[in-house]
Amino acid sequence: MIIAVFLNVSSRGEPNALSITQKPYGQIDGQDVHLFTLQNQNAMQVEITNYGGIIVSLSVPDKNGTVADITLGYDSLKGYVTDSSYLGALIGRHANRLEDAEFELAGVTYDLAKNDGANHLHGGFVGFHKVIWSAKILEDNSLELTYFSRDGEENYPGNLDVKVIYTLTADNALEIHYHAISDKDTVVNLTNHAYFNLAEHNAGDISQHQLRINAKHFTAVNDQGLPTGEIHAVENTPMDFTTLNSIASGLDSDHPQIVCGQGYDHNWILDTKGWITNKAAELYEVTTGRVLEVYTTKPGLQFYSGNFLTGTEVGKSNSFYPKRSALCLETQYFPNAMKHKHFPSPVLQAGQEYRHTTIYAFSIR
Q1: Which ranges constitute the DSSP H helices of the chain?
Q2: What is the DSSP letter of 80?
Q3: What is the pLDDT of residues 147-172, one digit of tens each?
Q4: Residue 87 clears pLDDT 60, i.e. is over it
Q5: Looking at 129, 177, 193, 209, which residue is catalytic?
């Protein structure tokens, strides 16, 4: 085991005694995989593996001081290798869906993997969630993961250098900083696919969680979960989370959009203007008092209520994760944006830097 201990100042300007440990986590095709543990003085702990940039666990205290792991996952590397639900994974090159598994860029049509019916989802069969990243512990209390995605990988154009930095702060926030640069015009839309249950990873149904999303509009979808290009107001619909509201109140609504998504699986158009200081979303679980606040520079937030979890795979501590036992809050460019030019564009021009930050901040109430 390699242990690195740092004592300095967090990005938020507060003293932060943070330990980062590294240990072997297994091998894939003869390549070593490691597990990194970031911990602060408040008993918050995050485990991340350089296979898929996956958040393996995220443990935070509740209002009584009880620490619990609040993200879905597996007890071993093998579970993540066979996982099909993207538990905790780093997603790329393009998060979410692309219609007909293709996009056109500079007059060239690129055909992608059809891994979601006739459509493309989360970067393909071997997206960034299924590769081994190079890892480096930084002196500013961070874990840096880098990956070189070659021109033509999953048929995306351009040699793409990707860097993702995870930072745990003194005030119980996990910061994720995304960077990428390509030698050709390409599309890039990176996110993290952590599944949250603020009661505990194996606590079951999340319908009693309360949610607020800083958005007055969302992108309507069809029965394939694809944005149609239409932008709808949330007012007077189950999509209205402009104030803190129980998820249960709309989860099984007969509203056409809920029917299309089999629950919530939609992109909200954030009113944060890309400012990291503006809160994008807030999630609250009343029995434990845990609060999750989301901040991001991205224009969209996908709220997914775990509608397609099956409960058949064995998770951590021999747990099973049935339908709606966790939820995702994925910061992103809008899904299917390459088909709808009025959406913010995920096109990254050659030589320009892709740079975005998302913060998951935890507290109690």
Answers
A1: 77-82, 248-251, 256-261
A2: H
A3: 999 999 999 999 999 999 999 999 99
A4: yes
A5: 193
Phi and psi at 19, nearest 5°, equal: -105, 140
> Three-class SS of residue 176?
strand
> What gap in Å lies between CA 130 and CA 119, rounded to an integer?
19
Please state, in angstroms and rounded to a whole number, the distance separating the CA atoms of residues 251 and 21: 40
Tell whether the torsion through CA atoms of 328, 332, 333 and 336 is positive or negative. Answer: negative
Residues linked to residue 38 through DSSP beta bridges, in sequence order: 20, 46
Told to judge if 104 belongs to the known catalytic residues of this protein, a careful annotator would answer no
330 an active-site residue? yes
**CA dihedral sign of residues 108, 113, 119, 125:** negative
In this predicted model, what pLDDT tens digit does every residue of 37-48 receive, in sequence order? 999 999 999 999
- Distance, in Å, from the CA atom of 52 to the CA atom of 32, rounded to the nearest integer, reads 13
Euclidean distance between CA atoms 40 and 141, whole angstroms: 10
Topology classification of domain 2-364: Beta-galactosidase; Chain A, domain 5 (2.70.98)
Q: Tokens for 323, please give them.
A: 């339908």
Per-residue confidence band for 11, with pLDDT thresholds at 50, 70 and 90? very low
**Tokens found for residue 115:** 């891994």
> Could you report how far apart the first and last alpha carbons of the chain are, in Å?
37
Distance CA 354, CA 136 (A): 20
Distance of CA 161 to the CA centre of its chain: 20
Question: Rounded to whole angstroms, how far apart are CA atoms 169 and 140?
Answer: 10
Compute the Cα dihedral for 269, 274, 276, 279 and give only its sign.
negative
Sign of CA dihedral 73, 214, 356, 92: positive
Calpha distance 345→182 (Å, rounded): 16
Cα separation, 291 vs 279, whole angstroms: 13
DSSP string, 223-282: TTS-EEEEEEE-TTSTT--SS-EETHHHHT---HHHHHHTS-EEEEE-SSTT-TTSEEEE
pTM of the model: 0.95
Instruction: Give the DSSP letter of residue 48.
Output: E
Using alpha carbons, select from 147, 134, 140, 191 the residue that is nearest to residue 38.
140
Q: Look up residue 62 and give its two tokens.
A: 């509740």
3-state secondary structure of 25: strand
Choosing from 175, 266, 330, 356, which is the catalytic residue?
Answer: 330
One-letter amino acid for residue 300 of the chain: G
